[in-house]
TrEMBL record:
It comes from Leptospira perdikensis. This is Glycosyltransferase RgtA/B/C/D-like domain-containing protein. InterPro entries: LA3751_2-like. It comes from the Bacteria. The keyword Transmembrane applies.
Length: 525
């Protein structure tokens, strides 16, 4: 009876935890989170689905009248043109994995797929690594896994698959089938995120070193034999993915490497700044130790006790520490505006694996002082998560509040002034022509062109309302754009109005919320 009652209590707690996780993500309004990278990855996924999985040629609704991409919204490091195709800079493996969901989900619901990877992770941590519910709660809310789950992204999948890929090397006695699956996941992770290579390279070399140190070099053949299934599946799928990249894009490392090639040439001073922002805090970006300050203490203790810890923990400690130092000097950027250092997603699980013995020991022993100390750091990280969730909601509110304007105006062609306010269109992009025009000359060129190509179409030019944005505010926004490498936008509003009156009927100038809108129906010649 007692055992039955305990199981029921545990089941209720698990259901409550899953509901809290769902609400914590739902609070940020994932339906309206198709913004920047999330939107770009959704477009890539939609393109594969629309092309019936036969091509990754990128969907661009204005391609018919803009073959030279003069009004294309993506920055040059986010797409490439190859073999007469327009393709996304993001690896296709993630998009192909998620594209089947579009048979049953609307495009705006893609961000919710992160929940599937979280559920897989929770199951695996509980079943195979014996994490308690409390520790799994900390794994989600006490790390930057929480903010990484707010948008449509491969990062929750990277975390989930990494727990499976490392299992045969952290736990003894894994079956052949388990090794095969782990190898498949490892190959997928490496291809989707090339920045995981340092961690996995150091991890597996360290694992081999400690094995041979313990058993002698003559046992190398035995080592390779014991992990033969894992090695076979990893090598086969890596060769497959690399061959696909070479065939489609002319480089075995794929689109992400090609598109980011300019970022790899960043100077040493820039790399030092990235070192601070990725590891600690700089330029309004929170790094690994900034988000997880307890990790610094944890790693320090492990290094101090290095001689007494198990080989598996030594291997994780070495791989994690070196990866923390290497990434700032090989990354193409510092993660831009991510809440939490996404380049270190692969290190969340090693941190949790090293935390588990500490957590269990002090929780069981009731050492209140130390446990309170640990809890304080956990609450600090949780507070950062809450702050990030509020910031994320303020971002998704931009799209949510913009949607009624689009419903009212109903433009067939939507023209936005810059790369950033473009993303307020959200899923409207998938059913209409949505483009960016940065200058007055481009506005003129566009209007002359659609007079021929798109007669009787309703067009709307939208920018920030100049009445609400002072010159100082505009300069501050432009300065942020310069720092981030975004182009500066400038429209001559008087000239735009004159041209619109000439080539459109039903012309109107509307002020809605913080936007000014010039709209009308393109006349027939």
């Amino acid at each position: 009876m007692k055992r039955s009652h305990s199981k029921m209590k545990t089941g209720i707690l698990w259901i409550f935890f899953i509901l809290v996780v769902f609400y914590s993500i739902e609070y940020t309004q994932p339906r309206y989170s198709l913004f920047q990278d999330s939107h770009d990855k959704a477009v890539q996924t939609y393109s594969i689905w629309q092309n019936h999985f036969l091509s990754d040629n990128l969907y661009y609704p204005a391609k018919a009248f803009d073959p030279n991409l003069e009004f294309f919204h993506l920055a040059k490091n986010l797409y490439i043109k190859t073999n007469e195709k327009l393709v996304s800079a993001f690896p296709i493996q993630f998009a192909y994995l998620l594209a089947p969901f579009l048979f049953v989900l609307p495009i705006s619901f893609l961000p919710y797929t992160s929940l599937l990877f979280l559920l897989l992770t929770f199951f695996f941590l509980k079943r195979y690594y014996h994490f308690s519910l409390l520790l799994i709660t900390i794994s989600f809310f006490g790390t930057f896994l929480w903010p990484l789950s707010w948008e449509y992204s491969e990062l929750p999948a990277i975390f989930a698959f990494s727990t499976i890929a490392l299992y045969p090397f952290l736990k003894k006695g894994s079956s052949v089938s388990f090794q095969l699956i782990s190898g498949v996941f490892l190959a997928w992770i490496i291809i989707v995120r090339l920045d995981t290579l340092p961690f996995f390279g150091i991890f597996f070399l360290s694992h081999l070193y400690f094995y041979l140190k313990r058993n002698g070099f003559q046992q190398l053949q035995s080592y390779l034999k014991s992990y033969s299934a894992f090695l076979l599946s990893t090598i086969v799928f890596l060769i497959l993915y690399l061959s696909i990249n070479q065939s489609l894009y002319g480089h075995f490392l794929g689109t992400r490497f090609l598109a980011n090639s300019s970022g790899f040439s960043a100077g040493f001073s820039k790399r030092l700044q990235w070192f601070l922002s990725l590891l600690f805090y700089s330029n309004r970006k929170i790094g690994f130790f900034g988000y997880l300050p307890f990790a610094f203490i944890l790693f320090t203790v492990y290094w101090y006790k290095y001689k007494t810890i198990s080989d598996s923990k030594k291997i994780l400690l070495i791989a994690t520490s070196l990866t923390l130092l290497i990434i700032p000097f090989i990354a193409p950027n510092d993660g831009f505006n991510n809440w939490g250092p996404r380049f270190y997603t692969i290190l969340i699980f090693p941190y949790l694996y090293l935390l588990k013995p500490f957590f269990g020991y002090y929780y069981q022993k009731r050492k209140k002082l130390f446990f309170s100390f640990l809890l304080t750091f956990g609450l600090f990280t949780f507070s950062l998560g809450i702050l990030g969730a509020k910031l994320q909601k303020s971002k998704t509110n931009l799209e949510k509040k913009f949607a009624p304007i689009l419903t009212e105006v109903k433009p067939d062609i939507l023209v936005l002034q810059d790369y950033l306010n473009f993303y307020t269109c959200g899923s409207y992009y998938f059913d209409h022509i949505v483009i960016v025009s940065y200058t007055t000359d481009l506005n003129s060129k566009l209007l002359n062109r659609i007079l021929t190509t798109n007669p009787n179409s309703k067009i709307a030019f939208i920018t920030w309302n100049p009445v609400l944005f002072s010159k100082e505010m505009k300069e501050a926004i432009n300065e942020d754009k310069r720092k981030s490498g975004y182009p500066i936008s400038e429209w001559e509003e008087g000239k735009l109005e004159t041209q619109m009156r000439l080539i459109t009927s039903d012309f109107q100038i509307l002020d809605r919320q913080t936007y000014r809108i010039w709209t009308g129906t393109v006349k027939s010649k």
